[in-house]
């Protein structure tokens, strides 16, 4: 019986091993998250460092920038783009679902063989190198 073995993350999604269009790796993802969360943390200083303000600002950053520039500022700084599986524009509802699940944290740390978190699977998106 033949096994469905994949040589690199994203191969079964038709993504290249490396370079533009390949699956974003952990280091870039974490770097982007630190940029976005750090920005939310700094901006929240205007509101008294309220933890809920930090999350709300983080969510707003995601919701404003993902549909407009194909990723958050952190994603773009680290050379990443968020696209649908077919490479098309993510639209408006996918960033809402993805961000809600990202804030819950658990779906973002459970990955499949393609290194897609449950938040990306649920939204039908993939974070790729731009």
Automatic annotation (TrEMBL):
Membrane topology according to the record: Multi-pass membrane protein
UniProt keyword Transmembrane helix present: yes
RDD domain residues: 33-124
Transmembrane regions listed in the UniProt entry: 53-71, 92-111
Keyword annotations from UniProtKB, A to Z: Cell membrane, Membrane, Transmembrane, Transmembrane helix
The keyword Membrane is annotated on this UniProt entry: yes
Subcellular location: Cell membrane
Superkingdom classification of source: Bacteria
Broad class of the protein's primary localization: membrane
One Pfam family recorded for the sequence: RDD
PANTHER family for the chain: PROLINE-RICH ANTIGEN HOMOLOG, PROLINE-RICH ANTIGEN HOMOLOG-RELATED
Record-given protein name: RDD family protein
Organism listed in the record: Microbacterium deminutum
